[in-house]
Amino acid sequence: SQTIHQWPATLVQPVGSPLSLECTVEGTSNPNLYWYRQAAGRGLQLLFYSVGIGQISSEVPQNLSASRPQDRQFILSSKKLLLSDSGFYLCAWSGTRRVHNEQFFGPGTRLTVL
Amino acid sequence: SQQGEEDPQALSIQEGENATMNCSYKTSINNLQWYRQNSGRGLVHLILIRSNEREKHSGRLRVTLDTSKKSSSLLITASRAADTASYFCATDAKGGDMRFGAGTRLTVKP
Q1: What pLDDT score does B79 carry?
Q2: How many whole angstroms separate alpha carbon A18 and alpha carbon A56?
Q3: Which residues lie closer than 8 Å to B59 by C-beta, 6 or more apart?
Q4: How would you label B4-33 residue by residue, b for 16+ Cβ within 10 Å and e otherwise?
Q5: Are the Cβ atoms of B45 and A104 closer than 8 angstroms?
Q6: How confident is the model at residue B96 (pLDDT cuts 50, 70, 90)?
Q7: Interface residue ranges in chain B relative to chain A, Cβ cutoff 8 Å
Q8: What local confidence, expressed as pLDDT, does residue A73 receive?
Q9: Does B48 contact A102 at a Cβ distance shorter than 8 Å?
Q10: Cis bond leading into A107, ω under 30°?
């Protein structure tokens, strides 16, 4: 069966510090991968998605970046965090068949920038 | 930008009552999905309804889709305290990707 992992679960970082959040998927090959951010009490904002290794699409211009060094690994990074980067970050994967693109979410990372 | 818009934003009911949440969207879609999120957790897929379907059932869940009105509803029958969560609709837009709404926060009081 497929599983998706995210770490860390919670993170408190000072403004201006770097960020690296990791997401890995097991039990499937060539998944589509997604990074979302969710502000408190709000919906999900799609940040990045990837349809293959090294292929990253950015939805919203910001100081975050994403990389996919391996088929089932998706990394969200920042060189210098801003206060506005605080939020709940969710990684998700879906199969490559577009018609049935149900997404499976990881447990999320709660990021607080102070 | 977000595609789906749920209403109400918050809903509070007693256990045993039915809960109805609505979702409206703007563009043509391939399918529409409903997800549930417990506080501070990831989202869990509940049900997918394709654009050529009008109604779908899964246990106590009933989803309708009206493509002429670009709207969908999620009905939870005989609600339980454990149904307390946020519910999101997500649309798979033709020529685009999935977009999530802001969600409806459902509270079921025991």
Answers
A1: 97
A2: 20
A3: none
A4: bbbeeeebebeeeeebebebbbeeebbbbb
A5: yes
A6: low
A7: 2, 30-31, 33, 35, 40-45, 48, 50, 88, 90, 92, 97-103, 105
A8: 96
A9: yes
A10: no
Within 8 A of A106 by CB-CB distance, chain B residues are 42
pLDDT at B99 over 60: yes
Q: Please, what's the b/e burial string for A13-27 (b: 16 or more CB within 10 A of its CB; e: otherwise)?
A: beeeeebebebbbee
Give the residue-averaged pLDDT of B39-54: 92
φ/ψ of B93, rounded to 5, equals -80, 145
Q: Taking CB atoms and an 8 Å limit, are A105 and B33 in contact across chains?
A: no
Q: Which of the residue ranges B54-63, B76-85, B96-105 would you say has the lowest mean pLDDT?
A: B96-105
Residue A37, pLDDT score:
93
- The ranges of chain A with pLDDT < 50 are 99
Round to whole Å and give the CA distance between B104 and B107. Answer: 10
Question: What CA–CA distance (Å, rounded) separates A5 from A3?
Answer: 7
